[in-house]
Amino acid sequence: MSTETASLARLSMSLPAELFRQLDVMVEERGLPSRSQLIAELIRHALAEHEALTRPDDMLAGTITLVYRGDRGRVRQQLAQTQAEYLKEVISSQHVFLEDDQSLEVLLVQGPTTRLKELCDALRRIRGVHQLQLVTTTALLPPLHEQDGVETDTSAAAVRKSPTKSAAA
Known about the structure:
By secondary structure, the protein is of the alpha+beta class. It is 41% helix and 25% strand. The chain is built from six helices and six strands.
């Protein structure tokens, strides 16, 4: 028996017939090998969302996806200014022009849940932003650089420890 199979747990569930049919259609349309794979993905997404809501000081990584329209110069300038205010949280951004005078921007972000939500709220306040979605994961980016010759530890285990280090550490 493989290690992967040994670490699996079975789940039995009942669904309304129409929901079950829609699930099968989704599995087929996405070309997935089983319902289990889709359900596991949906559960992982729900757990990451739950973690973001229940642990506001935990570090999360993720993306913010924005769709905006309007005076592109003004909107893009305000977006850039807002991102600069959250320099520690915004790792990178990608921008493309869409049809009908719209733009799509995706930000790669990492930081405490509360800061990421503050960033989203600040971006939403910019006139011209039509859609915004934050998608997070509890898995973190590895340390991006060293500071004063000491590598910063942003691992999930280190971040979830008490914010104050013990004297013995």
